[in-house]
Amino acid sequence: MMRRNDNTLVARYLTGWGLAIFFAASAAAFQPSSGRDGETPRVLPGTGTVQAAFTPGDDAGKLITDAIESAHRQILVQAFSFTHRKIADALIAAQRRGVDVKVIADKDQIHRIRTSLVSRLASEGVPVFTDSDHNSAHNKVMVIDAGSPGAAVITGSYNFTHAAQYKNAENVLVIRGNAALIDLYLENWRRHYEHSLPFQ
């Protein structure tokens, strides 16, 4: 990750061969013998761009909020822990400007973490659901404007939390311009949405 002298994050983009190598290496490294219900995991072409950020140090929260602010139509979220105020504020603002925002959260984390902002999201009108089918809803994902030219997926180890930004060693990827990959994440979000319950 490159930085200017004023310590402002300059995001590095992977394009062309660099992106193809990145996706090929990722596919090889995470190629189990079978996937969901015995399916072999799909290998997708390396297209588009990837922005990467690492914490502590890089402002991964800003990378995420910038992506949220660029949304025009829809933001679908899967969250394990959620305490990052600026990310919550960006999702609430997106909902208010007419973007379809939906959040699937881990039920136990909502109640275990005193500073969880999931209840605030719900109280501000963001539809929130809890994954009722897994011990841990451990995904940290946002699918933004799937099916449009500006579509993006946000993923990585980074929980949407203050600790992930300032205390932990984490990573975030913002992937754009890979319709097949974004559709795969959209399909996964919908699969979890089917067994999720409205947050109360």
In short:
The protein is 34% helix and 24% strand. Strands 3-4-10-9-8-5-6-7-11 form a 9-stranded mixed beta sheet, with helices on both faces. A hairpin with a 5-residue loop joins strand 1 and strand 2.
Coarse structural class: alpha+beta
Sheet with most strands: 9 strands, mixed
The proportion of residues forming helix, as a percent range, comes to: 25-40%
Low-confidence stretches: 1-12, 19-35
* Beta-strand fraction estimate: 15-25%
CATH class assignment of the domain at 70-200: Alpha Beta
Distance between the termini: 41 Å
Order of helices and strands: EEEHEHEHEHHEEEHEHE
Keywords:
single chain, 200 residues, alpha+beta, Endonuclease, Chain A, nine-stranded mixed beta sheet, 7 helices, 11 strands, disordered N terminus
Describe this structure in words.
By secondary structure, this protein is an alpha+beta fold. It contains 7 helices and 11 strands. It has a domain at 70-200: Endonuclease, Chain A. Helix content is 34%, strand content 24%.
